[in-house]
Amino acid sequence: MSDTATTNENLHPGMNLGYSGDAEHAEVTVFGFWTFLMSDLVTFGIVFAIFATMKDATAGGPGPAEVTNLTSIAMQTALLLGSSFAFSWASLSMKYHDIIWRTLGWLAIAATSALGFLMLELYDFYHMIKEGAVPQRSGFLSALWALVGLHGLHVAGGLLWMAAMTGQILKFGLTDQIKSRITRMGLYWHFLDLVWVGIFSMVYLAGVA
Amino acid sequence: MNFPFGRLEWSDLKPVHLFTHEFSIDNLVGSGAAWMVVIGALAVAVLLTVMGRWGWLWREWLTSVDHKKIGIMYMVLGFVMFARGVAEGMAMRAHQTTALNGGVLSEEHWAELFSTHGTIMIFFVAMPFITGFMNYLIPLQIGARDMAFPVLNQISLGLTATGAALCMISLVVGKFQIGGWTAYPPFTGSTFDPGPGPDYWIWAIALSGFGSMFSGLNFSVTIYKMRAPGMTYMRMPVFVWTALCTSILLVFALPPLTVAAFMQALDRTLGFHFFTNDLGGNMMNYANLFWMFGHPEVYILVLPAYGIFSELTSTFAAKRLYGYTSLVLATMSISVISFCVWLHHFFTMGNSATINVAFGIATGIIAIPTGVKVYVWMATLWRGRIRMTTPMIYMTGFFMLFVIGGLSGMILANPAINWQVHNTQFIVAHFHNVLLPGLLFGVFAGIHIWFPKAFGFRLHETAGQVTAILWIVGFSLTFLPLYFVGLMGYPRRSSGFEDPALLPYMYLTLFGALLIGCALLGLIATLWISIRQRDKLAVPLGDPWDGRTLEWATPAPPPPWNFAVIPHIAERDAFAREKVDGKPFVQPPDYKDIHLPRNTSAGMIMFIATTAFGFGVTWWMWWLVILSVLVVVGWFFVTSFIEHDEVTIPAAEVRRHHNAWIEAISLATPVTRDHETDSRNRGLADTDMVVAS
């Protein structure tokens, strides 16, 4: 609680905050964000569970094998994991170098990679629509579109956030406030990666197995 | 009539029905209610204009991020909706006295009434009440200046108000859904009900659900991270413990509801097949999702009320709470087990006997910690110096009635019995029997205890006692007969009945409902009388009940910064110990500048934008939907570029305010508990409590 100001050095190894007052505040906001992620994880968990109960509800329509393009999925996975990897470098450069452009560069790579992921995902969706695998076709497809779409919306929201962060870094520089925000954004980004690993294995790999 | 009004037609405006439709009582009730909303809103607007209070309302309240003001606004919202919920309940009881082979209201209108009544009472009365209490009390009781996220707190209020507003709008424009507060598809799906009703429900629930989730997040982070130095977990007041457990439940239990509501929206609006009858939809998924939220929700609502009862017993028995640790463990156990019992809400919906038994046993187990609590409160009262004032009258009513409600729950936990009484009025009796005495009596008792803290004057004691007794008697006459009616086979949610033997019970419950109506008026009268006599009832020194927790160590009302200096906590009930040792209210050696967050219109912008969103989706006004999404996203985007500035209260100002209070205390005569309810009580207690026991 209040006496933690003296032991700040170990509180946020990833952030390297400059002075004591804000570190305590950052402690609160980062913890709050973890709590939000927990709640979001429950949301994803429930949509996963619904998908699991509906995976056989194809109602004579396209099944998992027909809607899975493993090549595209593999590329999407690589792009999203790559984006997460680039974000780690952005976090590290934020910690060790006070050079705005270095952090921004890594953020740009992360964003481009995630944008590629979204493009491929939309292309997959477009293909599914062309083949009649629309969510209105069956319970299975409803659940598939909802789960993958929910993740995709999260990624799109994250891209918007990244755009805002880029502007803020340019405006304010790497202040403690901005560092705290980037740290939270990083948590969000890696979290979405983990969810994608779940989708990749449970929806696509298990679907074609 | 497509752009800009979507599928909205002139004939959807219900106030017009009074003139365009053939006269009937049914039409009069429906259209009259719509008129009351319109006239009520206009009256408030006119009143604010005449009194020139718009600016005051905006600056002092709507844009404030002070947790105390936000808490009070939650209570006001809850009471507005409560008035509507009670009126609906009385209308239903009146209808039932005519319901032998028919009834004055149409079946659809009846169904709309019980659906809105349930939705409003749970989501927009009970939730705002407990959220209001948690908002007001958590920072004060843990020795903090505000919530961890004050702006988010205001946004939560805005989102809750959105849900309430959509419910109120549905009374005037179009209609609400008719599938009960649980809104089970496929009955509420687009095949059976393509109208706007289920959409109103979905968006009222989903949008306010986000608000509740963020409240839970905010409260739990505040309790985990913002406690005053020295306040370890086992030194926290019991109310804070219950608030913590409720907050954790909010964070984990709201997502299933949100997911269920969004999937239902996708089904209805975009033709998905989550819960439909055809093409692989599965309605049971909805039932599971809804009750995965719905059962923890019961404890979300009742745990803070337990917290109030705990503070109440120890304060008004002038004793330390007996069995603090057991109470904390019981609260935590309830939170965990509450996630393991949801299936008992649908024992009859095709689960295997094994599953039913497992959930039946879990339901039985959850009664144990609840029983522990009742014993803890009784043991606290045992040999205490009990003051039989209004809060204690509510507590007495709670003791007698809540135990009956809890035991009827134990009867229902047995799947074999549950099969017999399921879907009858027995269920209606049961959940009213736990929610009214459990939650509502706790809230009213809590209002009597903390109103003086919030506004600086006590509530009139005699008026309060009469109202409390009206509530207890009114409740008993309205809902206890329903146990018998249920056992006689009267199904719930049924607009009429054919057995004349039920009729006397219906008159009895109508009489009870009238008493509840009087009790509601009694609350208003209590407030009115108290405001008229506020000088006589004033308790500016802040401790009218010889309180034990930190909030009583502040003036009434507390300053925006709560504490001149953040207190250091050495033990549980620290303020009580200081009073017994004879050294409360010490002046600190020096004061520091205090930084508080500045007012913001975030909550109001979210309220307006999300209400427009919900209304737009309901009526297919897609331009409004897109516009409101752009406003919400754009607002967050733009404001993230603005640095949060703070208001600084100079140390001199803090010192002046604090010294004035300390000086007033040193000049005042403390009153003993015998004069607690007369005008000698200015908020300085001549302490009379046993700390050691």
Automatic annotation (TrEMBL), chain A:
Name the membrane topology term.
Multi-pass membrane protein
Kindly list the places in or outside the cell where this protein is found, as annotated in its UniProt entry: Cell membrane
Keyword annotations for this protein, in alphabetical order, are: Cell membrane, Membrane, Transmembrane, Transmembrane helix
Indicate the segments forming the Heme-copper oxidase subunit III family profile domain, all copies. 31-208
Listed GO MF terms: cytochrome-c oxidase activity
Kindly state one GO CC term assigned in the UniProt record. Answer: plasma membrane
Q: Which SUPFAM superfamilies match?
A: Cytochrome c oxidase subunit III-like
> Which coarse location class applies to the principal site listed for this UniProt protein?
membrane
Segments traversing the membrane: 30-53, 73-92, 104-123, 143-166, 187-207
> Looking at the record's lineage, which domain of life comes first?
Bacteria
UniProt function note: Cytochrome bo(3) ubiquinol terminal oxidase is the component of the aerobic respiratory chain of E.coli that predominates when cells are grown at high aeration. Has proton pump activity across the membrane in addition to electron transfer, pumping 2 protons/electron.
The entry describes its oligomerization and partners as: Heterooctamer of two A chains, two B chains, two C chains and two D chains.
In which family does this protein belong, per the annotation?
A: Belongs to the cytochrome c oxidase subunit 3 family.
Q: What is this protein called?
A: Cytochrome bo(3) ubiquinol oxidase subunit 3
Q: Which organism is it from?
A: Roseivivax halodurans JCM 10272
Taxonomic classification, please? Bacteria, Pseudomonadati, Pseudomonadota, Alphaproteobacteria, Rhodobacterales
UniProtKB/TrEMBL annotation, chain B:
Which UniProt keyword terms apply here?
Copper, Electron transport, Heme, Iron, Membrane, Metal-binding, Respiratory chain, Transmembrane, Transmembrane helix, Transport
Q: What's the domain of life for this entry?
A: Bacteria
**PROSITE patterns registered for this protein in UniProt:** COX1 (PS50855)
Task: Mention any Pfam family matching this sequence.
Answer: COX1
Under the heading InterPro entries, the entry gives: Cyt_c_oxase-like_su1_dom, Cyt_c_oxase-like_su1_sf, Cyt_C_Oxase_1
An annotated GO BP: respiratory electron transport chain
Query: GO terms for molecular function, please?
Result: cytochrome bo3 ubiquinol oxidase activity; cytochrome-c oxidase activity; heme binding; metal ion binding
CC terms in the record's Gene Ontology section: plasma membrane
UniProt KW Heme keyword: yes
Q: Protein name, please?
A: Cytochrome O ubiquinol oxidase
